[in-house]
Design goal:
By secondary structure, the protein is of the alpha/beta class. It has a single domain, classed as NAD(P)-binding Rossmann-like Domain (Rossmann fold). 48% of the residues lie in helices and 17% in strands. It has nine helices and seven strands; from the N terminus they run βαβαβααβαβαβαβαα. β1, α1 and β2 form a beta-alpha-beta unit. The protein is globular, with a radius of gyration of 18 Å. The N and C termini lie far apart (42 Å).
């Protein structure tokens, strides 16, 4: 069985790759950094003895994504699953970010993902038991004055995955979506956080164990679920003050 991991050079992407490889799954790894992918490929093959293919690609440009899809059509035909631990964040991501900056963030965190999924499902119309796993962010629960377009893109991604879950309920397509709080990665390094950071290795194990669940929505770490529910229940006038306090 072959699984494609988009954003494989990130902390979560690497741990997912090792977890799946340790369970004898072949991999196709996608990331912008070819050097990181080559190192990860060598490490996985050495430790787990599975087939690994790397496909360097920049998903922040729609033209590049479309060219990538055309060049790798046969690859998508062989997939048993896709995972999207991709997360592009920049310091310039604010309400008044430039058009180029906002497009790059939205393309990477939302639009390119939908293109890859739609392309795969259209090619695999008669294929059974394909699994699609998306990863959102607790930051998408409400608008923000920083990471503005990232949060908006993750919000759109969650809505898209909800639609995907509903659309595929009676098909042999399993869809899962994880809303993530702070993880123990470089993005949260040295940040003063109120709640503990979640382990990406633990999350990778959970994702693998949940592969056969159809239409699952999860929170990780688990304590973000009641926080998210509270944000949705509380009046916006109160929530915006809380968010401003901790941004």
């Amino acid at each position: 069985m072959t699984y494609m991991i988009v954003g494989a050079s990130s902390g979560l992407g690497k741990d997912l790759a090792h977890e799946f490889a340790s369970n004898n799954k072949n991999l196709i790894l996608i990331s912008r950094d070819k050097t990181d992918l080559e190192y990860l490929k060598s490490d996985i093959i050495l430790k787990h003895k599975v087939d690994v293919k790397i496909l360097p690609a920049d998903l922040s440009s729609i033209d590049d994504v479309e060219n990538f899809l055309r060049s790798n059509e046969k690859t998508f035909n062989s997939l048993d699953g896709l995972l999207f631990p991709i997360a592009l964040m920049t310091e310039k991501d604010k309400v008044l970010a430039s058009s180029l900056e906002s497009k790059k963030i939205i393309y990477s965190n939302f639009y390119s993902i939908t293109l890859l999924i739609n392309n795969t499902l259209s090619i695999n119309k008669n294929k059974k038991n394909i699994t699609i796993v998306g990863f959102g962010s607790i930051s998408a629960s409400i608008g923000r004055h920083v990471n503005t377009f990232y949060s908006a893109a993750k919000n759109a991604l969650e809505t898209y995955f909800e639609s995907l879950i509903i659309t595929t309920l009676n098909e042999n397509i399993k869809v899962q979506f994880y809303t993530l709080g702070y993880l123990d990665t470089g993005l949260s390094f040295e940040k003063k956080l109120i709640l503990p950071k979640g382990s990406t290795k633990k999350l990778a194990k959970i994702v693998f164990s949940n592969l056969n669940i159809s239409g699952g929505k999860f929170y990780f770490p688990f304590w973000w679920k009641p926080i998210s529910l509270a944000i949705n229940i509380l009046p916006f006038s109160i929530v915006k003050l809380i968010v401003k306090r901790f941004n």
